Amino acid sequence: MMVFMLLTVFSLDRQQMLVGLSLTMKWTLILLLGSSMVETALSWTYHYSDKTMNWTQARQWCQTTYTDMVVLQNQEENDYLVSKLPKKRKGPYYWIGITKNHKNETWTWVGNNSTWIGEQSWAENEPNNDHSTEFCVEMYLNTGKNRGKWNDQKCDKANHPVCYKAQCNATSCERGRCLETVENTTCLCESGFKGDRCQTAVECPPLSQPDNGYLSCSGGNLTFNSTCRFKCYSGFLMIGSPSVTCGVTGVWSGPRPACASYKRALMIVAGCGAFSALCCICFCWMKRRKRKKLAQVRQSEEATSPPSEA
To answer: What's the predicted TM-score (pTM) here?
Structure first.
């Protein structure tokens, strides 16, 4: 049975792709797989078949064999796909994963519900809904001005499916979300994590042992969300918060506390009390002086105002 699958894979690293895709390897694979050609890749991949099917069958084939029918997020991806697909002088062309169910609906991509169609997507005078039920889209791959342009088409027409296979999986990014784009797979890290796979927690600067005390950190590290607790030796009193936490930006949540002797602590407390009392006295004196001044102004106004007529 002749293998019908024809797949093309697009690489994150062009140099690795060129090395891995020597003519010798291609012809070896063709001899081994009949009509199939394979190119290895490190990022997401596009695949297409030399067998034709209607749009619904094409999507089912993509979902069964790979991830889904191809979804294009911008013009750059559209142009990149066109550059990798073989030229065709005439149809059948290629199904892409954008569709709608009714005439007045918006064109929507399968999988992510995106409505991107770009400014250069459609061929001239398209989409025209020529038969009132052209709710699927094919991509022209001829050599003319319409190469890479789209045409709305009846969904029961036979075309070649174009699929994609996601390279992101549950282990791609340890603490983040995997994002796939043209020739690139990127991890969008959670707050407090960094690295190409979000595998490294943000670190805070080391803390020195306090005078007359000691500290211990959870897990023995100084990374995001870890907490260091301070304790004072016997005979010393802690002034300040007993713990600090490493934040998402690599900064501790607050200043470290100090361990003071009880005598010094009492002096500090007494000094704070005296300062507070002085502030209170000053505030009360200023408030009393203000009231007295207002009363003097009021008496002066009453003395100079003419008597009211009977």
So the answer is: 0.54
